[in-house]
């Protein structure tokens, strides 16, 4: 083997936690000094980005020439593989974020849909399958739809009378040279309803709707990427790809707790990267034949056939997957379990100085433990939060046009926020708008989770606005500026929320043929507007599966899962390992932070888990994993039949139902008995026996295959919305939620809040006590005044 070159770099300024990286690269990797290679290894945000498709291919070919020492026969074989791996991708507008129809209104209205192209794919052909409906009242010779890609007009779609008012499907060929890694697909309506010069831009006849089932269809071929850590998280996760992340983890047979913990930390990091896309992490014991994969193992446990540099410490390596041409492996390894853990921590904490096919980690410090409720994706609950902290780009707080889309701000907050005095969430809203010249129906609607909170009428321009002399506000824009303070009702706020600010700027046209410019109006919300959750306490009645399914509470109370242990069976099946990795991926998605301090344990180690909330994963409801908690379990499935036959296929359980929900309806309480010979999966929550206030959430099923059904459920918002209580049964895709066990309380409420909460439950008694208190106060004041008067008289 050729000699290895080492380079030590300090990352303390990057991470705030010092560690040393040693870059290990084969001599061929020195070609990174060439311009073509530098273009790719600069950063994943600009890697072959911003180039048209042919340029991406040319840059990649140059990279391959610089990094891959191969023969002409090898190149021909690679081309053959590329042709064999060509694929066609259908991206519906709904998958690209346009869940509702694109409603185009007025003389000139536009909407944009964003689409990306994976870094390891190049577009060879593209077409747009557009499904739309338009008004039958248009002047068809003048009306049409303009289609653009990255602000370049690529096609026009004419309208005709024959298909007006009907759903029209039209396929438009697109030049793939216009497509880069990030693309904006624009649709602009040009509409006229009369040949006169005094059209009303707000006329109801000016409309066209584009269906969310419209598709962007891309024919792509693979690009051979170099083995370079600078590209991470690509190609294992590519943020240009809007589909669900499916990333296999290759683990050694009978992996120990330390290896599973390292894999779990990586899964939580990839889950945070995937975010809204969701993520699944199948667990394999061999290299996949058709996918990128992450390999986590000590050096002696690595799969055979890998061409790697010597493993002489904590190492991160990107290598070709010998079982899948064109696919990559991210190898997290070391000589010991501690070194494997250090390598994984170095990856999730920062990769700014990582480059080349391999790095060796010399030292790692994961920093101080996280504080409660400080997850990066959660809104701070200890102070007022400015809107500038809730958006990536301040331009998202500005809109234009008479009926623009709503300004949307995502608010993820802890699930245990409790308003003991019934107070709402204070919102200090500052906004600006183009003021109408006369009083009209212009308004601002404030909504939370699509529910109206309050609507404000926008005032017309005043006489002072036309004086011709103004003072330009510092760091602000011209226009009417208003400020409003309101409380959002606390009962409308959950753990995952969206604040919607919807401007409706009414037309200022006052009569027929009154000239008005098209869409002259603008509006903006000031970035200094604030929302304040600091007046709430942390207090919740548990168990509540809705808290877990929507935000991972109570485990995500600490973003690094410092008080969480995942309990898995002694010999877990692949489905159980997939469930463990996927659920930790969800934790990362909810918090935006890797699970650096999570603990993995087996049933025999339960006695050692003190001060922990437990996430229990077991594919057999009758396994010893849950047997010791038989009396505390709200439901036992997979039990033996009454005749004692342990291998009976019948699942039996009896329990008393206190509350039951199904399809949003509250059903009568009573007892229930399950006696089935079919498959059944369950999600359960209960208080850990012997540990006051500690929670257990268990994913269990009659067999390991059913665990994947539970994972599928978490990917479907309509199913997640049905999770309530402490037991959720999943049968044939249907979810039944109920409350079976006794509730318990977590959190803290001040003594005065508890006293007041009890008092308001008895309004009559509270009124009597208030009257007595008032009487005593009056008597005391009267007595004091009498004494004061007596002293003045000298008595």
Structure overview:
There is one protein chain. This protein is an alpha+beta fold. 19% of the residues lie in helices and 31% in strands. It contains 13 helices and 44 strands. The strands form nine sheets. Strands 34-33-35-41-40-42-43-37-38 form a nine-stranded mixed β-sheet. The longest helix has 31 residues, at 763-793. The N and C termini lie far apart (112 Å). It is found in: Cell inner membrane. Belongs to the AcsB/BcsB family. Pfam families: BcsB. Its main location: membrane.
Number of domains: 5
For the largest sheet, list the strands in their spatial order: 34-33-35-41-40-42-43-37-38
Could you estimate the helical fraction of the residues in percent? 10-25%
**Terminal-residue CA separation:** 112 Å
Strand residues, percent: 25-35%
Protein name: Cyclic di-GMP-binding protein
Keywords: c-di-GMP, Cell inner membrane, Cell membrane, Cellulose biosynthesis, Membrane, Signal, Transmembrane, Transmembrane helix
InterPro entries: Cell_synth_B, Cell_synthase_bac
Main location: membrane
